[in-house]
Structures are given as structure tokens and as C-alpha cells.
Design goal:
Distance between the termini: 33 Å
Helix content: 25-40%
Number of strands: 12
Strand order of the largest sheet: 4-3-6-7-1-11-12-10
Structural class: alpha+beta
Radius of gyration: 29 Å
Number of domains: 2
Order of helices and strands: HEEEEHEHEEHEEEEEH
Strand content: 15-25%
Low-confidence stretches: 18-23, 183-191
Number of helices: 5
Shape: elongated
Mean pLDDT: 83
Length: about 230
């Protein structure tokens, strides 16, 4: 009986520990790492676009220009993008520059191998990239030259999930992928369902084993009593 109880306890602990696997390696959803491939010639940086209405409480006419940053630095040399630049005035199909028009967007930092954009987000007032995708839908990306001219715009983003990458965007030619860190919600739901099923089934299985064991013991006792009566 003790062995069965230990088995039951170990199984519950194992499956309970398996549930938060996606949270073992934490990545901040308020920080987006932007990677670019197959961009138009002359592209200096890639700007993320969202469908942010001008009457939205988070909209502002202009925030700050992106900066070219040395690796590891949090600031650098301004590109000189202004409210009069083409990217700042862009609003096709309702899409505008996230870094230039959202009040909680930090300065877009352009590094040698990627760009990093951080949103001002907190537990009390959350505004990370998951929130943005829920509130405003698919993202787009615009390829921008050094003077703020738009060289091309991607199609709406598709969402991908990975345990090995941080939150961010992969722009490649006409396509854009919104990369979310962690397991796919469907995989998490299936894992939880399987875990719950196993936990619910274990007592039943253990009960059947105990019942079968008791029946064998009763049969053995009855056989011994019959033998003694003879």
C-alpha cells in the first residue's frame, strides 16, 4: 500500500512539474528582437507597424527617432527621423509606426545584427507585444532608409511559437513572423488535459489494483480455511 501511495504521489508531482515547462526560461514579452532578411536595397532599419487608430488613447503624433546603437548599449546616435518623415506620416489601411506613434513605445535601437524595441509595461498596466497583438491584430513591417523613406511594406504577420527564441519579429522579403516565446497554446492545452486525465485515472487504477489484491488475499484465506477444515 505504501508503494502504491508513493507511486501516486510521485506521478502527481511529475505531471505538476511538467505543466509550467514553458515558463522555465523566461523572456520578457515587452521586449521585441527584430531580425531582417531579404530587405530592399538601401534599408537601414525595419519598423514595426500596428493598426493604431489616431483617436486611441495610446496614440501620439510623434515619440522619438530610432537610434543606431553599439552592441550592448541602450542608446546611440539618432537617425534624425522626424514627424515630417515619410514613415512618421504613413497610415495606409490604418497601420502606423509602433515606435513613432505609441505612447508606451521606447526608443527603437538599431544594433549591428538586430533591432530591439521595448514597450513600457508593468503588471498593473500591461502593454507588451502579446497585449498589442490582442488589441490591434496582426502586425506589419516597413523597410526604411536613412532618411525615413519607406522602401517596402510586408504582408500582415503570422504568429510562431518557440521555446528557444525570445519575443520579436522576423521580416523576410514580403513576409513577417511575430515570434512568441513558449509552447503553442494548443500544445499547452493538450498537455494539461493529458495531465488531468492521468491524475484522475491514477486513483481508479490504484483502487482496482488494491481491490484485485484484496480479492486474492480473500481467496487465499478461504483456501487455507478450507484446507484446515479438512
Amino acid at each position: 500500500m505504501k508503494k502504491l501511495s508513493a507511486l501516486f504521489t510521485a506521478a502527481i508531482i511529475a505531471f505538476s512539474m511538467a505543466l509550467p515547462v514553458s515558463a522555465v526560461k523566461h523572456e520578457d514579452p515587452a521586449v521585441a528582437h527584430i531580425n531582417t532578411a531579404d530587405a530592399p536595397e538601401g534599408t537601414v532599419y525595419t519598423d514595426i507597424l500596428i493598426k493604431l487608430p489616431t483617436d486611441d488613447e495610446s496614440y501620439t503624433d510623434f515619440t522619438q527617432s530610432p537610434e543606431v546603437c553599439k552592441d550592448g548599449a541602450k542608446g546611440g546616435t539618432s537617425l534624425g527621423i522626424t514627424a515630417d518623415s515619410e514613415i512618421a506620416k504613413y497610415s495606409e489601411d490604418g497601420y502606423v509606426s509602433l515606435s513613432l506613434h505609441h505612447k508606451k513605445a521606447g526608443m527603437l535601437c538599431i544594433y549591428s545584427d538586430e533591432e530591439v524595441l521595448k514597450m513600457a509595461s508593468s503588471k498593473i498596466d500591461s502593454c507588451d507585444f502579446i497585449d498589442l497583438s490582442i488589441n490591434y491584430g496582426d502586425f506589419k513591417a516597413a523597410y526604411i532608409d536613412g532618411d525615413g523613406h519607406i522602401l517596402g511594406v510586408t504582408s500582415p504577420s503570422e504568429t510562431a511559437y518557440s521555446m528557444d527564441t525570445p519575443y520579436g519579429f522576423n521580416a523576410k522579403g514580403n513576409s513577417l513572423t511575430f515570434q512568441r516565446h513558449g509552447a503553442h497554446p494548443r500544445a499547452i492545452a493538450i498537455g494539461i488535459a493529458v495531465s488531468v486525465l492521468v491524475i484522475i485515472s491514477l486513483p481508479i487504477i490504484i483502487g482496482l489494483i488494491i481491490s484485485k489484491r484484496n480479492n486474492r488475499m480473500k481467496a487465499s484465506e478461504l483456501a487455507n480455511k478450507t484446507k484446515n477444515d479438512q
